Amino acid sequence: MKASKKNKFKNADLCTHCGYCLPICPSYRILNDETHSPRGRVSIILALARKELTAKEAGDALTTCLVCRSCHSACPVGVRPAKLVLSVRNKSPITPPLLSRLFHIITNSHTLTSYISSAIRWYQNRGLQAWLRRSRVLRLIPPLHRIESLIPEKRNDPIPQFPPKNSLKKAKLKAALLCGCMARLFHPRVAPSTANLMQLLDIEVTQIDGFGCCGSPFRESGNRDLFIKQAKKTLDAFKNLTDVDMVICDTSVCWVTVRSYARALSTEKKYAEIAKIFSEKIQSLEVLLANGLPQALPEKYIRPENSVTFHDHCQIQHGLGSTKEPRELLKTVAGELIELPRGERCCGAGGDYMLRYQELSNNIRQDKLAAIHESRAKTVVGSNSGCLINIEAGLLKDRSSVQVRHLAEVLWQPLSKD
Asked: Three-state DSSP class for 36?
């Protein structure tokens, strides 16, 4: 069936079912089932377009897609299965399990995220995390054990201070920092490390507060109402910062998500203009640092002794094609960089996918863990908190000594000791 130009699924008609997408699809590699492959999903979407399936039936059949976009890179004729899946989910959103809903109650609220982040630090500093993990008592409550297993282990590194306001006498630029909710919960060093690195580039940073989550999980699951609600909360928090020159996201998936605000809110009278301004000011953290940090580092900068490897967030790698900048940066300032074998493959995190499909997510993750061990790198660096907590949880389960760090942490830590 040839779809009309108005059909959102017309891209599916390009599929020749050649199979190039099969080996790169994370769910197909584990399940070995055509219905969980990109070309199988295209067939489901074509059946929906022919009205052989309802939106609910098609949506239910597509829930195992991680929307990683690996298939976009593999397809020789330009089929975009992940985007087609999102179009179906907009018609029939994924219903999240109770564990995901409880997690979103926290991340959707700036206040709750702040409280829970403080509670996690208290839980770790009092030794409760170490005791509970040794006792294995949480295994008796599987949902709680799953959530707890994703909390990174306590580190001895101090949390950097945010640079004081107006501490730059002659700031070249002003930036608004959008800190991802997962980073605020689990990686409290990321935002202040980012702000301090920006100061080295003569960029004055103000953190955007009060928005909770940027809406990424709802955009991915097709829940447009909740996505728009969270986008509006983010823009409300940004409104008073319109004099800034740029907006920086410290978490990759947030960067991908907020770039879509202008289009998503284009028909909202109250928000269309501010969404357009916001989207135009989005800048990549990796690009900013790669272009300016090497020249701004002091001569006595001490490179980390451990070899590092970089883990790419799938949507950045396959959706935007941005992989060069973090590697150039790490080669310049962070010592030995080792390329990760099979680095194009997904780690299995997929936002709340690791809560919805725990076993499948863990099985997908195993290949990433194997690649890390094959690389013999001592530290895995990335810029997406969801990926990092998933990888670190897997390494801890394997009793591995490999460290997992956000890019901003790795770059700022040596400088914080001056």
From this structure: helix
Quote the pLDDT of residue 356.
92
DSSP strand pairing (246-249 vs 282-283):
parallel
Tell me which of 1.10.1060.10, 3.20.20.100, 3.30.530.20, 3.40.50.720 is the CATH number of domain 10-91: 1.10.1060.10
Instruction: Answer left, alpha or beta for residue 19, where phi above 0 means left and psi between -120 and 50 means alpha.
Output: left
Q: What is the percent of the chain with per-residue pLDDT over 90, rounded to a whole number? A: 78
Say what the pLDDT of residue 414 is.
83
Best CA proximity match to 70, nearest among 78, 82, 61: 82
* CA dist., res. 80 & res. 48, Å (int): 16
Q: For the purposes of burial, counting CB atoms within 10 Å of the CB of 51, is it exposed (0-12), middle (13-18) or buried (19 or more)? A: exposed
Strand ordering across the sheet containing 308-310: 308-310, 379-382, 403-406
HSE value, Cβ hemisphere, 13 Å, CA-based, for 377: 27
Question: How far is Cα of residue 11 from the mean position of the Cα atoms in its chain?
Answer: 26
Mind listing the pLDDT tens digit for each residue in 181-219?
999 999 999 999 999 999 999 999 999 998 999 999 999
CA 263 to chain centre: 20
Please give the structure tokens belonging to residue 354: 């690791």
Least confident of 168-177, 299-308, 309-318, 375-384: 299-308
pTM attached to this predicted model: 0.94
On average, the pLDDT of the chain sits at: 92
> 10-91 and 173-285 share one CATH topology?
no
Residue 5 has pLDDT above 50, yes or no: no
Q: How far apart are CA 332 and CA 414, in angstroms?
A: 14
* CATH domain 173-285 topology: Rossmann fold (3.40.50)
**How is the chain split into domains, by residue range?**
10-91, 98-149, 173-285, 299-416
Cα–Cα distance measured from residue 303 to residue 299, given in angstroms and rounded to the nearest whole number = 11
Mean local confidence (pLDDT), 326-342: 87
Using an 8 Å Cβ cutoff, are 216 and 256 in contact? Answer: yes
Q: Look at phi and psi of residue 204 and say left if phi exceeds 0, alpha if psi is from -120 to 50, else beta.
A: beta
For 299-416, CATH number? Answer: 3.40.50
